[in-house]
Structure formats: structure tokens, C-alpha cells
Specification:
Residues 1-25 are annotated as: Disordered. It is a single chain. The longest helix has 34 residues, at 63-96. The protein is built from seven helices and ten strands. By secondary structure, it is an alpha+beta fold. The chain has two domains: 21-98 and 109-141, no CATH class; 149-284, Immunoglobulin-like, CATH 2.60.40.420. Helix 2 (21-44) packs antiparallel against helix 4, helix 4 packs antiparallel against helix 5 and helix 6 packs across helix 7 (278-284). It has a five-stranded mixed β-sheet with strand order 3-2-1-5-8. Strands 4-10-9-6-7 form a five-stranded mixed β-sheet. Helix content is 39%, strand content 21%. It has helices spanning 5-12, 21-44, 48-51, 63-96, 112-141, 262-273, 278-284, and strands at 149-156, 159-168, 174-178, 186-190, 194-201, 206-210, 215-219, 226-231, 236-242, 254-260.
């Protein structure tokens, strides 16, 4: 039997099957979520390397810094997994249990299996995070009885003094470098060796911070000595700062950490023992004699005429 014109017209105007309201709502929620994630990513304007660092700074130059980086990445991924699960459950409940009428849904007083799950799982997550935090913290705070090099850091308003107990001068005291308002002190340390820092303050609380170490430690007065130990893997010049608000010229309380080879470090100490100044000793080992990462604060208060 051949279909007539009327049958053909009916067939062409027959209503097409449409998605259920539930599916349409789920698609809208998914589209909004995807669009929001894409918008946030584009607004961040960061590279893939920065994005997957989750805000952790790059450039760590010690094994301790790498350990902290791994801890940060692991905990952030765990947090994202929990977040995705929670967000997914929220969106699913919004779509699945949205209001469909005036009839009151079944009231559930309790659900023992679910309550056990959301009580045990968070405890397990916290236990794992606590374990890795304790391991990482113990590794970062670990010190040796006999480090390869020792530096005594003395902080004062508003500068630094670095003493080297391993090398004594002609007066029997450790050789040292002291900063002034016109001189940025340069701290010289060896690479690929265990360097222990012993810290003291002469007045108020300061904080010893080299950004590339991804670590800082407060310096306390009153005979309270702090110490920590690192192994620097890369030679170079790194700016150091005070990270504790300590007074008027806190922002100018800078220094420079100069990481050199073990041979150059030993020669530097020998030059200091001979009475050479720090700039002269640095020049003798082929280093820039003065700080290159920061400069002294201009204390000129005289009036100037704009050109």
C-alpha cells in the first residue's frame, strides 16, 4: 500500500522523541559545572606546569624542599578527589531529588551504612594525611650530630651576622660577616654537603628565610636557639630576607646566600682566616664580591629636585 499525501504530511510533522526533564536538568548542571571550571582555568592564566603545582612555588634547591613539594601535591590531589566526590553527590542530589510536586517525600530518620561510611572514611583520610605530614616534618627537622658545615646566624635590628664556627681567626674567634646599612651581608655555604644553621637573635623575633629553600625558621632572643639543616643542590646566588615583622626597617633586612662548591667554600674560609674581608675572599674564589640579588636601602634623606 502506497502512502498518500496526507500520510506523508503526518509522518513529517510527527513529534520527535525528546529527552526527559531529568536528563535535561542533568545536562544543564553538567554544562554549568564544565563552563565554570573552564572559566576559572582561563582566568587563572597560568601554565600547565604552574597549574599542576597547585600554588606551590617552583625552584626548590634542597631535598627537604622536594619532600615538602611531594607532600603538598599529594595532599592537594587527595583534597581534590574528596571535593569532586562531594560536588558530584551534591549535583546528583539536586537533580535526582528535586521537587516534583507538593507531595512530601519519604522521611528517613537514619541510614546506618551511610553513617558508618561518612564517619570511617574521613577518619581514614585524616590518618593518612597525618602520617605523611609527620614523616615529612621529621625529615625536614632532622639534624646531624656532625654536619659538614655549620653557620651561626645572629639576627639584630635590622641586619644579619654570619659566623663560621669551623674556621677560627687570629683572635681565636670564628670568622664572620656582618651586615651594615651600606653593606648587604653575603652568606657563603657549600653545595652537596650537610649545612647546619644555628640561629640566635640579639633583640626581637626575626625569621631566617631564603625563598628557594621553601622553608623559614624564626630566630628567637633570650638564649632560645633554633637550628635546622639542609643540603643545597645547586650553586648560585639567592636572596634572603627576614620574614617576621620586627620593626621600622624590617623590609630592608636582607642578605644573600651564595652557594659554592666545597673546594671554593674551604678556600673562602681560609681567606677569612687570613684576615681578608668577605668581598675580597669572594673575589678570590671567582665570585661577585657583593650581593647581586638585593641592594642596600638608600638612606639619603636630602631633598632632591626632579629633573
Amino acid at each position: 500500500m502506497v502512502a498518500g499525501p496526507t500520510d506523508t504530511a503526518r509522518a513529517s510533522h510527527a513529534p520527535r522523541p525528546t529527552a526527559s526533564p531529568r536528563r535535561r536538568s542533568a545536562r544543564r548542571v553538567a554544562a554549568v559545572a564544565f563552563g565554570g571550571a573552564a572559566l576559572l582555568t582561563s582566568l587563572a592564566g597560568c601554565s600547565a606546569k604552574d597549574a599542576f603545582a597547585f600554588g606551590w612555588p617552583h625552584g626548590g634547591i634542597t631535598p627537604q624542599a622536594h619532600k615538602m613539594y611531594n607532600m603538598w601535591i599529594g595532599s592537594t590531589i587527595a583534597a581534590l578527589c574528596v571535593g569532586v566526590l562531594v560536588w558530584g553527590l551534591i549535583f546528583w542530589c539536586v537533580v535526582r531529588y528535586r521537587k516534583r510536586g507538593e507531595r512530601l517525600p519519604v522521611q528517613t530518620r537514619y541510614n546506618l551504612p551511610i553513617e558508618l561510611v561518612y564517619s570511617i572514611v574521613p577518619f581514614f583520610v585524616i590518618a593518612v594525611l597525618f602520617y605523611y605530614t609527620a614523616v615529612t616534618e621529621s625529615y625536614v627537622n632532622k639534624t646531624s650530630k656532625h654536619p659538614d658545615a655549620t653557620v651561626h646566624v645572629v639576627a639584630f635590628k635590622w641586619n644579619w651576622q654570619f659566623q663560621y664556627p669551623d674556621a677560627k681567626g687570629s683572635n681565636g674567634q670564628p670568622v664572620q660577616t656582618t651586615g651594615t646599612s651600606s653593606y648587604i651581608p653575603v652568606l657563603v655555604v657549600p653545595t652537596h654537603k650537610k649545612v647546619q644553621f644555628i640561629e640566635d637573635s640579639e633583640d626581637v623575633i626575626h625569621s631566617f628565610w631564603v625563598p628557594e629553600l621553601l622553608f623559614k625558621r624564626d630566630v628567637f632572643p633570650g638564649g632560645t636557639t633554633n637550628k635546622f639543616e639542609v643540603t643545597i643542590e645547586k650553586e648560585g646566588a639567592y636572596v634572603g630576607r627576614c620574614a617576621e615583622l620586627c620593626g621600622t626597617y624590617h623590609s630592608q633586612m636582607n642578605f644573600e646566600m651564595r652557594a659554592v662548591s666545597w673546594t671554593d667554600y674551604q678556600k673562602f674560609l681560609q681567606d677569612k682566616q687570613k684576615g681578608m674581608s668577605t668581598p675580597a675572599a669572594l673575589r678570590d674564589i671567582g665570585q661577585a664580591p657583593y650581593a647581586t640579588t638585593t641592594h642596600p636601602f638608600d638612606t639619603d634623606r636630602t631633598s632632591r629636585t626632579a629633573s
